[in-house]
Amino acid sequence: MSLLDVENLRVTFPVDGGPDVRAVDGVDIAVEPGEIHGLVGESGSGKSVTARSVMRLLDGAVVEADRFDYRGEDLYAKSEAEMRTIRGDDIGMVFQDSMSALNPVMTVGEQIAEVVRHHGDVDESAGLLSELRRKYVTGTSETAPSWRRAVELLETVGIADPADVATTYPHQLSGGQRQRVMIAQALGGDPSLIIADEPTTALDVTVEAGILDELRRLCDEMDVSILLITHDLGVVAETCDSVTVMYSGSVMERASTEQLFQHPAHPYTKGLLRSVPEGGATDGELTTIPGSAPEPTERPDGCPFRDRCPAAFEACADPLPEHVVDAGHATRCHLYTERDDPGEVAWDADADIDAGVTAVTDDSGEPSPTEVTDG
Amino acid sequence: MGADYGGYGSDDTTRLFGVRLDRFDRLRETLTGDYKATFGLTTVILFVLAAIFAPELAPFDPMAQEYAIMQAPSLSSAHPFGTDSFGRDLLSRMMYGARISLGVSLVAVTIGAVVGIGLGLVAGYFGGVVDDALMRFVDVLWAFPWLLIAIMLVAVFGQGVWNVIAAIAFAYIDDFARLARGEVLSIREEEFVLAAKNIGLSDTRIMIEEVLPNAVAPLIVQFTVLVARAMLAESTLSFLGIGVKPTTPTWGALLGQGRSLIGQAWWISIIPGIAIVVTVLGINLFGDALRDAFDVRGEEGSP
Amino acid sequence: MGIQRYVAKRTLQALLVVYVVATTVFVAVRSIPGDPARLILGGDADADAIAAVRAELGLDQPMYVQYARWMGDLVRGDLGESIFTGEPVASRIIGAAEPTLSIGLVGISIAILIAIPAGIISATRRDQWEDYAATGVAFLGISMPSFWIGIVLLLTVGTAIPAIPSYGYTPISEGIVPWLANVILPATAVGLPYAGIITRMTRSSMLEVLGEDYMQTARAKGLPPRVILFKHGLQNALLPVVTVAGILFALLLGGIVAVEMVFGVQGFGRLLIRSIERQDFPIVQGSVIVISIIFVFMNLFVDLLYMSINPKIKYGGEA
């Protein structure tokens, strides 16, 4: 049984005085125990919304799915109080920007220790008054089990001098250290699943490699599954066991990492892979595909990629099909269901340069025409 | 980013004195759709009209004393807002008082704005030593609460409209200077300012034509908020008897005179107060609607 | 920048500002038309007597000597004597300070006790009736002059509840309860406008904090909503409020002076106004300087308070 099993997820944000925005439009996600599953896509593809929907953190959004099971139980059938025993406890979350995602006025040790108190196996009161007394009056005792566990966790995620680092504030740490703190915090409740939303995007390449190794090691040694959200196929190649490729709110392709890199099926995946160095990481910018992803309100019928797809044909306006390429490898492209031979996709090597557009951007937001800046 | 502010010749949006007019579209929408703005603006306009047309509208001469009801202030149909201890009609006095109260506040804040914005512009635009020197000066201004400035002016020059105006204007220079400087600091690195420098425009022209129009929204909000506060300050000074000359019927002065009659004629102490509250509330609500419309973030109330 | 250096620098700045204020007062007082000696002695005094008083006041000395004397006296805490009673100005001011401080401190306390919960409720219940109510009251608060609130309170609460005296002042030495009963109305009058501003500030600052990433992190950690709000949100939301609370002492001052007149409190404000009316300049100039000192050091205190609750400044980082 999959640890996380989501079928046909649709997430809609109501907009005042405008059409609703459907950020996620029919996504299937499955995370198996003990694996790192990559969820890859451009900014605005709906990957972060998908991740947050697992934690039920999407205020004001309408979330629908045919199935939304975690360990076989429907997450959306649970009460808010039950969700609180899953968030931070069974599912941990690591956010992208550790500077803004950590509380600036609390020591990092306390931010980890409070997770331990609320979810871990320590006999310490975690009520509001105890927490406030700890924060404003007594401070967290350094002999308290929760604090000792926090220091241990910092050591686990590869922080040198964990006891000292625990007493510092987020702004005193480097980006890499902060991201490790975020991971330690996610580990505080001894989770089975960690959702990591672009955990390395804000980091230097060398620091990034360290964090990714750390995630890999946690998965192998501590039996934690990880859902890794990224825009970077290099990160996928380095870290993930299997991967789901998203584009404009829909899944394009699902495969093991090996299958995806060896035999990509979907023209979009092929486009993405085109300029990724063999098995290597890229530093931010992946590759270029002419045009830009459609706004959620302006998606064409059928395949959302068809306006940019060099192999597009009439059938692409039909609803997305499901085609199994191989065991554990599926794609949602009409080429496979409507044509006997999908053939090779002819990507024009110079198209991106002529168009002068960056299609897959890093974390800087919407794909947009490259700005001309002189002086 | 440059596009947010309207770059130097970078778009063809209609402009008025260099301010992009489409910025005001949201303003118009907000003002027509927002109960706060509607109430605020209506109130302010009503009071301004009452002040301007006081000679035509006032039922009585504000200085005319009715000997029959002297020492017997009363509410009656002839005097809906009552009379004071000299038998003068309170409604008429309030209409004339509105001229002083509104006028003093507007003039004082305008002076404060002109001086303050000038200082802030120069300090922010040139930076360095100029900035340091000007901002230290502003710090000193800021250390004088407005009440003290007023007291010192009255002590030296005696009572008078211009002393009140000067005291309030002085007190608000630093508010405008700080705000303008902050805005300029963020604008001066924008590409359209750099472009204007590159094509050789003079500093004065860049400040007035490029920088200032883009700092206008928060300054307008600030202006509104401070006019409201200036009215409160003026009324306090008049109430204390250190404002405009005691014979002038400002709202604060009317309240001050009513204080000794509070037992027998409560309305003298209450009704001009209601006028102050409604006007100031109107200006404050209008200012808040402007803040929403211009999308100005930041402090609700620096004094 | 080290914390000691910062404190030293700020203290020095504060002293500099006080020095400039004192100099300004010196110049202002010397530019008042008329002869202080004649004012003291009255119009029909003879020339010898006037000369004697001038010598006593040091007015026959050159300006720079007067200036040096003035500054020297200030440093020793000597603010001169009242023209009318001959009492030292410093002791007059200290004598009048208790009622004023009582009204001010109780007023601020009332304001904070009302405003911060109101602001938090307003933000967490955004666009619901609690928010509209709090916002409406806050707007009303910032639109009313303190002295008028005082008059209204006097006419309503003061006449309705005889247990609350609406006139004068009871020293705290006569018991907390009578003192508080006497101070509560003027303090409320002074505190309400203050509360209005702090409510608006707290609301907008809390709204901003509620949208911060670390609040979502706290939710993702499975913390209960109240722990998230009060442990993770409140301190961050109050940081900007603290800075403004300090600046607002200026607003408070005008309120207190006028409210003292309404309630007939023999406080600092009344002393100040009486002295202006009687042209008792030594008291006026002494008061101006004392207020500036309080004002400047209050703000220094607020700065340090801000530092102590903001780890970013306390432990380096952005200075």
UniProtKB/TrEMBL annotation, chain A:
<keyword id="KW-0547">Nucleotide-binding</keyword>
<dbReference type="GO" id="GO:0005524">
    <property type="term" value="F:ATP binding"/>
</dbReference>
<keyword id="KW-0813">Transport</keyword>
<dbReference type="GO" id="GO:0005886">
    <property type="term" value="C:plasma membrane"/>
</dbReference>
<keyword id="KW-0067">ATP-binding</keyword>
<dbReference type="InterPro" id="IPR003439">
    <property type="entry name" value="ABC_transporter-like_ATP-bd"/>
</dbReference>
<dbReference type="InterPro" id="IPR017871">
    <property type="entry name" value="ABC_transporter-like_CS"/>
</dbReference>
<feature type="region of interest" description="Disordered">
    <location>
        <begin position="275"/>
        <end position="303"/>
    </location>
</feature>
<dbReference type="Pfam" id="PF00005">
    <property type="entry name" value="ABC_tran"/>
</dbReference>
<comment type="subunit">
    <text>The complex is composed of two ATP-binding proteins (NikD and NikE), two transmembrane proteins (NikB and NikC) and a solute-binding protein (NikA).</text>
</comment>
<keyword id="KW-1003">Cell membrane</keyword>
<dbReference type="InterPro" id="IPR003593">
    <property type="entry name" value="AAA+_ATPase"/>
</dbReference>
<dbReference type="InterPro" id="IPR027417">
    <property type="entry name" value="P-loop_NTPase"/>
</dbReference>
<keyword id="KW-0472">Membrane</keyword>
<keyword id="KW-0406">Ion transport</keyword>
UniProtKB/TrEMBL annotation, chain B:
<keyword id="KW-0813">Transport</keyword>
<dbReference type="GO" id="GO:0005886">
    <property type="term" value="C:plasma membrane"/>
</dbReference>
<feature type="transmembrane region" description="Helical">
    <location>
        <begin position="100"/>
        <end position="126"/>
    </location>
</feature>
<dbReference type="InterPro" id="IPR025966">
    <property type="entry name" value="OppC_N"/>
</dbReference>
<dbReference type="Pfam" id="PF00528">
    <property type="entry name" value="BPD_transp_1"/>
</dbReference>
<dbReference type="InterPro" id="IPR035906">
    <property type="entry name" value="MetI-like_sf"/>
</dbReference>
<feature type="transmembrane region" description="Helical">
    <location>
        <begin position="35"/>
        <end position="54"/>
    </location>
</feature>
<keyword id="KW-1133">Transmembrane helix</keyword>
<protein>
    <submittedName>
        <fullName>ABC transporter permease</fullName>
    </submittedName>
</protein>
<comment type="similarity">
    <text>Belongs to the binding-protein-dependent transport system permease family.</text>
</comment>
<feature type="transmembrane region" description="Helical">
    <location>
        <begin position="146"/>
        <end position="173"/>
    </location>
</feature>
<keyword id="KW-0812">Transmembrane</keyword>
<feature type="domain" description="ABC transmembrane type-1">
    <location>
        <begin position="98"/>
        <end position="287"/>
    </location>
</feature>
<feature type="transmembrane region" description="Helical">
    <location>
        <begin position="265"/>
        <end position="287"/>
    </location>
</feature>
<keyword id="KW-0472">Membrane</keyword>
From TrEMBL, chain C:
<dbReference type="InterPro" id="IPR035906">
    <property type="entry name" value="MetI-like_sf"/>
</dbReference>
<feature type="transmembrane region" description="Helical">
    <location>
        <begin position="283"/>
        <end position="306"/>
    </location>
</feature>
<keyword id="KW-0812">Transmembrane</keyword>
<dbReference type="Pfam" id="PF19300">
    <property type="entry name" value="BPD_transp_1_N"/>
</dbReference>
<keyword id="KW-0472">Membrane</keyword>
<dbReference type="Pfam" id="PF00528">
    <property type="entry name" value="BPD_transp_1"/>
</dbReference>
<protein>
    <submittedName>
        <fullName>ABC transporter permease</fullName>
    </submittedName>
</protein>
<feature type="transmembrane region" description="Helical">
    <location>
        <begin position="176"/>
        <end position="197"/>
    </location>
</feature>
<comment type="similarity">
    <text>Belongs to the binding-protein-dependent transport system permease family.</text>
</comment>
<feature type="domain" description="ABC transmembrane type-1">
    <location>
        <begin position="97"/>
        <end position="306"/>
    </location>
</feature>
<feature type="transmembrane region" description="Helical">
    <location>
        <begin position="12"/>
        <end position="32"/>
    </location>
</feature>
<feature type="transmembrane region" description="Helical">
    <location>
        <begin position="101"/>
        <end position="124"/>
    </location>
</feature>
<feature type="transmembrane region" description="Helical">
    <location>
        <begin position="237"/>
        <end position="263"/>
    </location>
</feature>
<keyword id="KW-1133">Transmembrane helix</keyword>
<feature type="transmembrane region" description="Helical">
    <location>
        <begin position="136"/>
        <end position="164"/>
    </location>
</feature>
